[in-house]
Amino acid sequence: MKQFSYIRAEDVAGAVAALAADPQAKLLAGGTNLVDLMKYDVMSPATVIDINRLPLKDIETLEDGSLRIGALVSNAALAYDPVIIERFPLLASAVLAGASPQLRNAATTGGNLLQRTRCYYFYDPASPCNKREPGSGCGAIGGVNRIHAILGTSASCIATHPSDMCVALAALDAVVEVEGPDGRRDISFLDFHRLPGDEPQHDNTLAPNEMVVALRLSPDHFAANHSYLKIRDRLSYAFALVSVAAAIDMKDGEIVDIRVALGGVAHKPWRDPLAEAECAGKPANEATFRQLAQRLLAGAKGQGGNDFKIPMAERTIIRALTQAASGTPQVQSEKAIR
Amino acid sequence: MLQADAERMAIPIVITLNGRQEQLNVAPWVTLLDLLRGPMELPGTKKGCDHGQCGACTVLIDGQRVNSCLKLAVTLDGAEITTIEGLGQPGNLHPLQQAFVDHDAYQCGYCTPGQICSAAGLMSEGHAHSREEIRELMSGNLCRCGAYTNIADAIEQVMGQTSKDFKEAAE
C-alpha cells in the first residue's frame, strides 16, 4: 500500500469540506473494498478521509412512511433490521446473498453503492484497463471474460457492477441522497450508476466533491411477492454470474406492478421499466415471465467466455418471478433452488 | 515504507486490546492485522490472503467479527478488540476452543483462530438456528484442509449447550 495522509472527519460538513478541498481524496467507511484496492495499488489516494464518526448510522421511518437508511448503516445492521425484514424483505435477502458475515459487519450501505467492479483486469495493474487507466484499452474484450457483462457494454469496457444490494435497490426504486458543497440533492437509483460508454472510469453520476449520505425507500412495496435469486460458481460467498431481484404486486393472479432488476450482467443494475409496464393486466404466469425475460435480454451480447449468461439470465428471471408470484422467495441459507 | 515516514505520520489512538488499554501511535496505512502480529506481538491472528477473502484474520471489534486485514488501525480509536489470545488461554479455554479440540476441527490449524473468533461472533449475533445456517454464516472462513464438517460439529455442540432455542430448533 502506498503512503497517504489521513483526515478524520467529525461531521458531514467536515467531510464535505475536506472533499471539496481535495476532490481526489477518497472517503473511507467500512474499507472492505477501498483498503483492498489500495493494497493492490489499483487505487492510491494521496489523502483518505475517515467518515466512520459521522452520524449516519440510523434507519428511520419518515412522516410519509418512507424509510431513510443512513450511508454508514452496516450491511449486517440493514439485513437484520426488523423494519427492513418486515417491509422490504427483498432488500434484506439481497444483502444476505452478498459477501461474508465478517464483511457485512464492516461494509456500509453507501460503500456498497460505490464499490468497484471485480473485473480481474481492473484489479491487475499490469493489464490494460480503461476503467483503471483511461485510454489503456480493455483486457477483457477478447480476453478471459466469464464474469463480464452481456448488456449495455461498450468498446471500452465490459465490466459489471458487483453488488447484490444495489440490484434490490434498483428494483425498489430507491433514492440516493447526496451532499456536496452546494447542499443536498436526490439521485434516483436508476440514474446513480451509469453505463461505461467511452468513460468507464466513471462508475456513477456522483460528482467528485459529493458524498452519499443516505438512501430512501418509498412506503411499503412488494413485501408479499418477491425473490432475490443469485446464481454463482459456489453456493456461498461468491459474486453473481447472474442475479435477479423480482417483485410483483398482484391482484387475483393478474399483474398490477412488476419489477425485475438484474445483477452480474451490466455496468449497473439492469432494468427495463417500459417492458415492465407492458406486463400490467397480464396473468402472473410463466408465459408472461418468459416474454418479459426475452424483452429484457433482447439486446444481450456475449463476449465468448460469458455467452452462457444469456440463457442463464432468461431462466433465472423466469424462476425468480415464479418464486415471487408463488410467495416462496429464495432463502439465502437454503441452497436448493425451488 | 521508511521507518522515518511512519514515525512522522503516526497518529495517536487508544484501544482496548484483550481487556487491556493500549496507547499507540500508528501510521495511517497499518492494518489492524499487521498491528496485532507486529508491535502487539499477538501472532495468534493469522494472515492468509490479506484481502478479506479467507477469514484467517478474523477478530472481534466491539464484539463484532471482522476481517482485521481490511481495517486500518488508525480508524479504531476507542475500539475494543478481542483476538484469539483474549478469548481463552491454555488451561482456561473458551468453550469453542475446547469444542474444536474435542471434534478435531482442524488439520493444519492455520485457519483455526479465525474460525473460532468468527464462531464467537456468529453465536453473539444469534442468527444461526440450524446446521445449514451455521454453514452459511461461517462461509467467510475458508479451511483448505477441509475440516468443515468437524468445524460445524464443534460450533453446533457449543451452541446446543448455550442456547435452548437452538437446541429446540435443531431437534
Indicate the topology.
The complex is a heterodimer of chains A (338) and B (171).
Chain A: E1 5-8, H1 12-21, E2 26-28, H2 34-39, E3 47-50, E4 59-61, E5 67-70, H3 75-79, H4 82-87, H5 89-97, H6 101-106, H7 109-114, H8 165-171, E6 175-180, E7 183-188, H9 189-192, E8 211-217, E9 226-231, E10 242-251, E11 254-263, H10 273-277, H11 286-296, H12 309-325
Chain B: H1 3-8, E1 11-17, E2 20-26, H2 32-37, E3 58-61, E4 64-67, E5 80-82, H3 84-87, H4 95-102, H5 112-125, H6 131-137, H7 148-162, H8 164-170
Parallel strand pairs in B: 1-5
Antiparallel strand pairs in B: 1-2, 3-4, 3-5
What does this structure look like?
The complex is a heterodimer of chains A (338) and B (171). With 338 residues, chain A is an alpha+beta fold. Helices cover 27% and strands 19% of the residues of chain A. Chain A has twelve helices and eleven strands. In chain A, helix 5 (89-97) packs antiparallel against helix 8 (165-171). Chain A starts with a strand and ends in a 13-residue tail after the last helix. Chain B is of the alpha+beta class. Chain B folds into two domains: 3-87, Ubiquitin-like (UB roll), CATH 3.10.20; 95-170, Orthogonal Bundle (DNA polymerase, domain 1). In chain B, 39% of the residues lie in helices and 15% in strands. Chain B has helices spanning 3-8, 32-37, 84-87, 95-102, 112-125, 131-137, 148-162, 164-170; strands at residues 11-17, 20-26, 58-61, 64-67, 80-82. In chain B, a hairpin with a 2-residue loop joins strand 3 and strand 4 (64-67). The longest helix of chain B is centred in the last third of the chain and has 15 residues, at 148-162. Chain B is elongated, with a radius of gyration of 17 Å. The N and C termini of chain B lie far apart (56 Å). The mean pLDDT of chain B is 93. At the A-B interface, strand 1, helix 2 and helix 6 of A face strand 4, helix 5 and helix 6 of B.
